Amino acid sequence: MFDPESVGFMLRPNLSDYPVRDFRDWESWRILTPIVADEMIRISRQSLIAPQTVLEEAYWDEILLGFSARGHHVFHVLLEADEPTMRLRIEGDSELAMAKQGRLDHLPRYAEARAWMSQRADVVVDTTRLTPDEAADHIRDAVRVASGEDLAATPPEDSRNPPRGYSASS
Questions:
Q1: Residues 26/17, Cβ–Cβ less than 8 Å
Q2: DSSP string, 102-155
Q3: For residue range 40-95, what is the model confidence (pLDDT) as tens digits?
Q4: Given CB 3.0 to 4.6 Å as the disulfide criterion, which of 25, 122, 142, 147 pairs with 20?
Q5: Residue 158: its pLDDT value, please?
Q6: Is the model's pLDDT at 152 over the cut of 70?
Q7: Tally of domains within the chain
C-alpha cells in the first residue's frame, strides 16, 4: 500500500513559502509521487495499491506519464458512490478526522471531474451498496481479466494483490 498523500505531507513543511489550496497543485508532488512509488516497487518487488483521488485531468496525465516513464502500468480504479453515501462515509471516518472538511469540500469538484475520470478508468466500481470485501472482489476480478488471468482458475492465496507489474489508483 502506498499513500501518495505522504509525499504531500513531506512537501508541505518544506514548501510552506509556496502556498497552494491543495498539495496536488505542487508540480513537485506530481513529479515525486511516481518516483517514490517506483522506489517502493524496486525495493519490495511488489505491485502497489495507491488510494488517491486526482480531480484535475492534466495532473492525472502528469502522474501517468511519470509512471509510464519508469516502466509501470497504472490500473486505474474509480470507486464511486452516490453523494449521500459519500458524505456519510466521510463524516463517519474517525481515522482521518482532520481531513474530513477538506474531503467534504472536494465533493462538488469530484462531481465535475467524475465524467473524465470514469471515461479514463480501467474499471468503475459503484460501492454505494457494496461491502469493502465485495468492492475488493470486483477490483480483483477486473485486474485478473486485464492481466489475462483465467477467472475460473483457483485464485492465488492472497487474491487481493494485483498481478505483478500493476499499480492501482483510485
A1: no
A2: HHHHTHHHHHHHHHHHHHH-SEEEE-TT--HHHHHHHHHHHHHHHTT--TTSPP
A3: 999 999 999 999 999 999 999 999 999 999 999 999 999 999 999 999 999 988 77
A4: 25
A5: 47
A6: no
A7: 1
Which residues are CB-neighbours of 23 under 8 A, at least 6 positions away? 5, 7, 8, 9, 11, 12, 29
- Residue 155: inside a domain, yes or no? no
**What would the pLDDT profile of 7-30 be if each residue is shown by its tens digit?**
999 999 999 999 998 899 999 999
Note the pTM of the prediction, 2 decimals: 0.81
Amino acid occupying residue 5: E
> 132-157 burial by CB neighbour count: b if 16+ within 10 A, else e?
eeebebbbbebbbeeeeeeeeeeeee
Residue 32 contacts residue 7 (beta carbons within 8 Å): yes
Greatest alpha-carbon pair distance for the chain in Å reads: 55
Q: 116 lies in a domain?
A: yes
Contact of 80 with 88, CB cutoff 8 Å: no
